[in-house]
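Support request, please re-run this one:
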Amino acid sequence: MVKTPGNIRTQFPSKEEIVAFIGEQPGKVGVREIARAFSLKNNNRAVLKRILRELGDEGQLESRHKKLHPAGALPALVVADITARDRDGELIAVPTEWDEEAHGAPPRIRVHVPRRAKPSEIAGIGDRVLLRTEEVEEDGGIRHSGRVTRIMDRAKTRVLGIFRPTPNGGGRLIPVDKKQAGKELDIPPHATLDAQEGDLVAVEIARSTKFGLPIGHVKEKLGSLKSERAVSLIAIHAHSLPHVFPREVLAEADAVKPATLEGREDWRKLPLVTIDPPDAKDHDDAVYAMPDDARTNPGGFVVTVAIADVGHYVKPGSALDGEAAERGNSVYFPDRVVPMLPERISNDLCSLRPHEDRAALAVRMIIGADGRKRSHTFHRVMMRSAAKLHYLQAQAAIDGHLDDTTKPILHSILEPLWAAYEVIKKERAERGPLDLELPERKIVLTAEGMVDRVVTAERRAAHRLIEEFMILANVAAAETLERAQIPLIYRVHDEPSPEKVHALSEFLETLDISSPKTGALRPQVFNGILKRVKDTDNEALVNEVVLRSQAQAEYAAENYGHFGLNLRRYAHFTSPIRRYADLIVHRGLIRALKLGGDGLPPAQDVAALTEVAAKISAAERRAMKAERETVDRLIAHFLADRIGAQFEGRIGGVTRAGLFIKLNDTGADGFIPARTIGDEYFRYDERTHTLISNRSGETYRLGDNVSVKLVEAAPVAGALRFELLSSGKVEKGKRHRTPGAADNYRASSKQRGPKPPPKAGSRKKRRR
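Re-run finished. Output below.
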C-alpha cells in the first residue's frame, strides 16, 4: 500500500489488501468501512463495489450476516465439536456446521482452557461446545483458537438401540444410529437388566474383543417399541432431548397463581378469537380486526394480536426459566409433544381458552388501505377469548358453511378478519417474500398409535391470514425494541451465498432457465424463477433446488435481516409457550414499555443474548432433526410389510454413490445404490445433478419421475432401499466420453450411500 507523507493514498488498494483488511476487522465491514479505511472518495466507490463482486465470484470473499468475510472464515461465536487432542494434549475442535462443498475441509480450532477454568468451561473429546474464536498465527496447520463459553452436549458414553434376545439368555443390541447400522453389540445373560424383545435400551460398552462382537451391559430400559407410538422415544433419547421436568420445576409451576387485573388493561369485552390446527393442544395467540373509523385512514383497519403472557409466570432466573432455556423450544412428534414448559403453564394458565380470563401481551396495529402498517402500540391486558376455531372451520364459515360456533360470529368477527387480510395481502405482494411451493405431509395415526395414512396438508386462506397477522406482530415487536435500544434476539435469515447462487444458475441453465449469477439479491429474483416453472413438469424440481440454495434461518442478537420474508427487522414474539426466543422478546417489551417488574434483566445484554441465541438455534436444529428422523422411522414401519411392492416417485437427490428417491404418495425417502443400476459405469455431473452412463449415455437427473421396487426396510434406522425399475433418459446425438479412474463413480460393494438430505416440508408457522 503506497501512501504520501500526508497519509493520502496515491493508488487504489489491491485485492490482497482489501481481503487482508476485512479479515482483520472484528465488527461490521462493508463498502463504507473499506472506503473510509483506504481514504477512497465517492467516485471510487463504484470501482470498489465492482472489485468486491469480483472477489465474491472468485471465492475469496463471502457475505455472512450482512458482513463481509474472507471465504471460509469462522464467526466470532461458533458451535463446535471437540474431536481430538494434538501432540501437546490440547483439545482440537471443528465447527458443527460447515459448508464443505463451498469451502473445503472445516478449519480446526485449538481449544484454550484457562488455568482457573470453571466446570462449565472444561470440555473433553466428543463434547459439543459454544466457542468464542479468534484467528491466531498458524501453528501446525491450525489458525484458530477458541475458548469454551458453554458446553452444550457432553460426549455420549452409551449406545442406544433395540434389544433382541438370543437363545442363551443374553441378547443383541441393534443400534438406532444410522452411522452405527450393522454394528451390533453382544449382551451377556447377566447384563440384560431383564430387557425384553423390542425394548429401547441404553448400553454401556464393557469391552471390545479381538474376535466377535463388542460386549455391552444394559444400563437403562427406556421403553418398549412394540407399537409405533413409542418410536419417538428413539429420537428423544438419541438426541438427548430434555423430556422429564425436574421436581423443582414442576413444583414451581404448580405453585403459580393465575394473573389478576392489577397492572393490566381490561380487554375482556374485545371479541378476540383463536384459530389453530384441529389437533392443537395449546392456544397462545388470538386475533381481532375492525375497520378503522379514523378519517385519516379511509379503507384501513385496526388489527389486534394478543399473545399469552408467559413472562408473568416464568420469571427470569427461576427454575422454570432455566429449564425453558435448556429446552429452547417444544418438539413436535406425530404421537406426542415434548413441551418447553410444563402443562400447568402451557395447557392451562397460558392457553387462551374461550370464555376464560387470561393474561396477555397484545399489540394493536393501524393498517392503511395499502396494507402497510402505519403505527402500533403494545399493551399488557386481561382478555377473554370469544371462540376457539380451527383453520378448516374458520375457512368453511367464510365459504358459507356455518356451524353453531361460527354462525353467531360470522359478520362481527370473521368477515372483518378476512377483509383486513385482503388489505394486508397488498403489502405482502409489494414486498415480495420468497414464495416456495413445498407440500407439507402429515402422518395420521390410529388410536393404537399405528400409521393410518400420510396426507398432504392443504394451505387455505385461514392459514395465511394467521401467518400474516403474526408476521406483522413480530415486526412491530422488533421495531419497538430497536427504538427503545433494548437488546433482543432477532429471527434472521441470511441471503444465499455466492457459491450456491452460482451453482443454482448453472443448474437452471440445463433447463433453459436464465438467472443472474451476480448482483444484488432479492427474493423477487427467485420468485421470478419459480413463476416461470409454475404448473410445468419442472415445478417441484425447481422449488426443491431453490430451497437448497437458501441459507438456514436462525436466532441472533445481531440483526442482519430476514431474506426469505424480505424484512429488515424481524423478531419472534408470537409463541412464548413453545419458543424461548419469544419469551426474551416479551421480557424486552415489558422492560422497554415499563409494563411491570418482570422484564428483561439488565445483565442480559447483547453479549449474553448472543450466547442464548446460539444455544437456542442449536436446540431448534436438534428438534428439527429429531422430528424428521421420527417421521422416517414411522414411514419405514408403515412400509415394512410391503417389500417387493412397486411405487412411483421422483429423484430427490443425486450423488456419486447413487440416487435418493422420494415416493409420491407418502413422501418417504429411500436410496438406490449406484452399483444396482444396470450393468454400466456411471459418472456424476455435479453441475447438472445427473448420473450419466459411460456407454449408452443413459442419464438419471434430479427431479426425474421413476418407478421403483422396495427391497429393504429398516424401521429402527428409518431407512428404505429401492430397486430402480425405470430406464434413464438418453439424449440423442450426444456423445459421452468413457470416464477415467477419477470419473468412475459406480459404487463398490463396500460403498454406503450418505444420509438423505433433510425433507423440505416443515411447520411454517413454527420455523419462520
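The chain has a mean pLDDT of 84. The chain has 18 helices and 34 strands.
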